[in-house]
Amino acid sequence: MEPDGKFGPVLAGPILRHSAPDSLVLWLVTSERTEFAIQIFDGIEPLLDRPVADSEIVQLRVGTRAWLNLLTISPESALPHNTRLDYDLGLTANGSGAPRWIGEWAPHLCPEGRERPGFTLKSRLDRILHGSCRRPHHPSRDGLVRVDEELQKAEQLEDVPSLLLMTGDQVYADDVAGPMLHAIQCVIHQLGLYQETLEGASLSHSRELTSVANAYYHRDELLPESEFNEDLTERFFGGVRKPVFTTANAGNHLISFAEVMAMYLLVWSPEPWAFVTNAEPVDDPDELARYRNEQAAIDEFRRSLPRAARAMANVPVYMIFDDHDVTDDWNLSALWETTAYEHPFSRRIIGNALLGYLLCQGWGNQPGNFRELIGQCQKLFESSNEQHELDKAIHDDLIDQLFHFQHWHYSLPTSPRLVVLDTRTHRWRSEIRRSHPSGLMDWESLTDFQHEIMGEDAVVVVSPAPMFGVKLIEMIQRVFTFFGKPLLVDAENWMAHRGAASVLLNIFGHPRTPRHFVILSGDVHYSFAYDVRLRHKQNGPHVWQITSSGIKNEFPNALLEWLDRLNRWLFAPWSPLNWFTKRRRMWISPRLPEDREAGERLWNGAGIGDVRLDDEGAPTAIRQLDAGGGGTVFQRRVKED
User: Fold this and answer.
1) What are the transmembrane regions (predicted)?
2) How do residues 221-236 score in pLDDT, each as one tens digit?
3) Which among 38, 28, 56 has a CA at the least distance from the CA of 101?
């Protein structure tokens, strides 16, 4: 481990974010305040070679040795479409000396045979890579490594991805392996990430998180005893087990902002791992066995990080949150919101995760949407005192602003238009019972969405949860909800709320809805593709539901096969159960994975989705690329369902 003051200049990044002819956004974290120079080349011809202007940089000091930087470069002349452009970033510390370029401080980001990373601004969205659910300690390989492989071998223009969409659960703030939590504490210590006071728990300061008896695997026990907190433990910390789908793993839930920030550094960059010591900070035999099992998965994840980082430096990356970026079942129901937001401890935990999402994900999508919030972040980090502790009042005020922020969603004026939905903070709360799942978007947000797409010939929509999912699983969710137990099965789908489902289906039936409607989703830990049409409407839109999940996560394989087969039997075209589904106005034809087992419709394997679109915005190929190589093509079939 390098001694204090000897850190490399860049701790994470650059990650290539919003990219257009008139704007190039780069995200990175440095170990000291830095001045930058930018170079962009078309072959050997320099298109840009100058210092980055002060107006193009926002720097936030998040620790004594950690500066978060967002660079929004505005070229004097528009960058060309459809040609490979190389870029380089020069660093000058303390305003003196010659710049140090990427080949010196992050050579792992340069593609093989090239001196610099690069990108291509496509004139249309003709190839999209997409995926969700990147869980570091899952034993599968990392799908971002497959992204790197696809970038390395893309020699023809049509093979170059237009962008990479990360459609939710880029981090798991609520499901952290023991070795990852140890690594987080090492990074916090080495970088001096700012700490904070806490309220409503059995500890009063974030520094105590490393010393309390429940530091590993038992964080749900940090709440003081009370009847109210029994509900909080069950609803927020996932105190109930979830048969069929997942098991609650919130015992290592991230709590402080420093922990969230360290997590992002560790999942996106190999550099901070140099600060991590070898340790086994648990004594219980069962917990020690679990820790060692997780350590093996984390070690493999760490080994592949240089390639994952290279992928994110060489293609424009866009992101949107889902629940695990903040906490499991985030805003599931009105009752969940009341329980979680009215307690100061869980409110701070949620707020810190959302602050981390803002700084490390959301900001880079459309920087102009966040100027006021970033100004408040600057105020918060400048409030750090001699103990490197954030001001509590400013911190709480910023979290209030984050909870009321209305513009996490965004769209890009691409061809076809890309519309990314926020299905987490604009919920349509149940009018029947507060414990029932909320609609994924409220009426106002759905109306805004409809206005956004009306008149377009084609549109690509990112909905973290599939709009059209597996009927059997949705029915199981509905049954659990009926008996008042929605938390048992992640009862979150578009059809779970009558009002939201009705408005959504009416959007597809509107005469001015796009002719081609591609929906990209994740969330469910398996992959599938559906062709969707309106029944009894020959000129209705062509809709494709394409789901890719997870990047580094998988559904229990035997269980998925059982659900897949049972779903085919219960919801065959002749089945009367189809009349009890809200989407009975739609005709849905599942595409079949190539080389599937007999009747298989769902694909279970960590990796990345790959969609090719023609000039009209219709898919010409839908593939799932497995993280370990291979994959499948989803093939069109005859009408069904």
Assistant:
1) none
2) 876 555 556 666 766 6
3) 38
